[in-house]
Amino acid sequence: MSGEPDFKWKQCLVIRSDVKMSCGKKCAQVAHAAIGAYENAGKEAKKAWLSEGQKKVVLKAAGERALFELKTIAEMAGIPCTLIQDAGLTEIPPGTVTAVGLGPARSEELDRITGGLQLL
Question: NCBIfam families in the record, alphabetically (predicted)?
Fold first, then answer.
């Protein structure tokens, strides 16, 4: 049995830790972030990430400002990203910023941006 696979590409999905959401709600917001960021990625990144098995890492950030900062840094680095705002149909008010999706992008590029965040 060989060691862990060497993933060169991944997505980082970051959810706010200061908004009270059920586990299912958090999962839905992270799923929105994953799809949105993927849709914003280029053909090469999509193909490379898909061929490796679509690695995703789910992280948490302290609040809305942190999500906006992560998105801005990712945009400046040319990394596909998306900010998720909830429709407000269930648990939280409409327009609440809940998550940000980054990538698929090269793992080392995402690590430079998200390396200080904790896993969810």
Answer: arch_pth2 (TIGR00283), PRK04322.1 (NF003314)
CA 101 to chain CA mean position, Å: 3
In-domain check, residue 65: yes
In three-state secondary structure terms, 27 is: helix
How far apart, in whole angstroms, are the C-alpha atoms of residue 87 and residue 58?
21
Number of domains in the chain: 1
Q: Output the CA torsion sign for 82, 85, 89, 90.
A: positive
The model's pLDDT over 12-51, given as tens digits with 9 standing for 90+, comes to 999 999 999 999 999 999 999 999 999 999 999 999 999 9
Between 107-114 and 64-76, two packed helices, what is the crossing angle to 10 degrees? 140
* DSSP run (H or E) holding 108: helix 107-114
Q: What does DSSP say about strands 118-119 and 56-61: parallel, antiparallel, or unpaired?
A: antiparallel
Predicted TM-score (pTM) above 0.85: yes
Q: What are phi and psi of 41, to 5 degrees?
A: -80, 155
